[in-house]
Structure formats: C-alpha cells, structure tokens
UniProtKB/TrEMBL annotation:
Domain Xylose isomerase-like TIM barrel per the UniProt entry, residue ranges: 20-241
Pfam families, A to Z: AP_endonuc_2 (PF01261)
SUPFAM superfamilies in the record: Xylose isomerase-like (SSF51658)
Originating organism: Anaerococcus murdochii
Protein keywords: Isomerase
GO molecular function: isomerase activity
InterPro entries named in the record: IolE/XylAMocC-like (IPR050312), Xyl_isomerase-like_sf (IPR036237), Xyl_isomerase-like_TIM-brl (IPR013022)
Name the record gives this protein: Sugar phosphate isomerase/epimerase
Length: 245
C-alpha cells in the first residue's frame, strides 16, 4: 500500500475530525498530527481519540512534534503522547541554530542528549525523525549525515524535504547521501522566499525525487498555495498520480 497523506499543520484552522474527513475525501491514508494545534503534548485523551478515529478509517499516522531542544521542551511528555497515539514516528527539530554556528561543546551535548532520547524512544518501539530544515543542524547534507552518524542509533532517522536554497541536482545528491536514513517525505512546492505554487508546476522535479527516494515511504502534503482546500485537492491528485496511488 502506498503511503500518501498530509501534515495536519497544512490546515491549522481545521479540527481533527475535519482533517480526517479531508484525507478520506481525497483518497489519502496517512496523517502527521502536529503537536502545536491538533495534538498538544500531554493531551493523552485526545491522542487515544485520534488513534481510534484513524484506526476506524484505516489511516496511518505519525506525531509531528516541535521539540527543538529548548529548556522549556519536555521530550518525555512528547514521547508519552506519541505512545498514547501509538505512533511509530516522532518528528523533532535539530535545534534552531545553523550547523556552522554551533560550538563543539554544545554539539557534543546535543549528541549525548539525542542518544538518550533515542534510547528512551526505542523502549517504546518509536523512531525519532529530524526535520530537514534550514537554520538547524540538518541545514546541509554534510551536517545532517554527520549528525545522524554521530548519534549512531538505529531508530534515528530524518524526514526529507527540498531545501529551499538548493538546486534540483543538490537535492537529488542529498537524497542519495541520506537515503538509508530517510523515512517520511514532506511534499510542497515553494521558492527560496517561501512563496507557494501548485504542485503540478514542480511535477517533473518531484518525479525525479520520487525516482531516487523510492515509493515505500510516506509522502505527506504540506503548505499548499494560499492554504486553499481546492489547491490541496489538486495537489493530492498530482501526488497520487506520481506515486501510482
């Protein structure tokens, strides 16, 4: 079964039930539940309700947390929320500092902390997945690969998305370099200034990414043009067509 879906943060103004309906109406079978609006850390009752709703409708799911290694972030609470959801994947951020700017000492602390987090997650059969994003420790392919290797845990992975400042060739090279550590994919079409466009306009590019990524990963739509439902529906059709889903 092809895993094709959306990130719930695509429509932060929609309720959980509306997000599920939107997935079903468009033939999607996977939802990444955002931890900022739809499933806040510690809301265990809602986690169990979302699980039941998704299971009833044969929808797979992951937990899109916004853990960024801040002092106010509570990883244990996020982990327990993901466990209540029975999600197999948690998305986290590799801090909010460029890989070029972090000190050697802070990097060592980050690695040790990440290893401890990964070990806790493994006890619950959960994988940690870093957001592939600018101004984090994954902002270059080289830094992302080094970070994953330095953590050295078999349940630590990375989500892939096109880095805004990279060329198509650089993005494909990133896929090849990180291939064994890539799990879910965030799918969108925007430029370096975050202007959004219909996915169809990047169809050829995305076909090349999919060819290199393979179809056995979850492809999740995120950030559609104008936050439009109609655009989302069109993008969903394009994505399903590319994946044969």
């Amino acid at each position: 079964m092809k895993k094709i879906g959306l990130c719930s943060v695509t429509f932060r103004d929609k309720s959980v039930d509306e997000i599920v309906d939107l997935a079903l109406e468009n033939g999607l079978n996977f939802i990444e539940w955002g931890g900022d609006i739809h499933l806040k850390p510690g809301d265990f009752d809602e986690a169990r309700r979302i699980k039941a709703l998704c299971d009833k409708n044969n929808i797979l799911y992951s937990y899109g947390s916004y853990y960024k290694y801040k002092d106010t972030d509570d990883f244990d609470l996020i982990l327990e929320t993901a466990a209540a959801l029975t999600a197999k994947d948690i998305r986290i951020w590799a801090k909010r500092i460029s890989s070029a700017d972090i000190s050697e000492e802070d990097y060592k602390i980050f690695i040790k902390q990440s290893q401890a987090m990964a070990d806790k997650a493994k006890e619950k059969n959960i994988r940690l997945n870093f957001e592939n994003h600018r101004v984090t420790l994954t902002d270059t392919t080289k830094s992302a690969r080094k970070m994953l290797d330095d953590i050295g845990r078999d349940n630590v992975y990375i989500y892939w998305q096109p880095q805004a400042d990279d060329s198509e060739e650089e993005r494909i090279q990133a896929i090849k370099t990180l291939h064994d550590k890539i799990t879910n994919i965030h799918v969108f079409n925007w430029d370096e200034n975050f202007n959004r466009y219909p996915l169809i306009q990047a169809k050829a590019e995305w076909e090349s990414y999919i060819k290199n990524l393979g179809g056995d990963r979850a492809y999740l739509l995120e950030f559609v043009k104008d936050d439009s439902i109609e655009q989302f529906k069109e993008d969903a059709k394009v994505l399903k067509n590319m994946l044969g889903g």
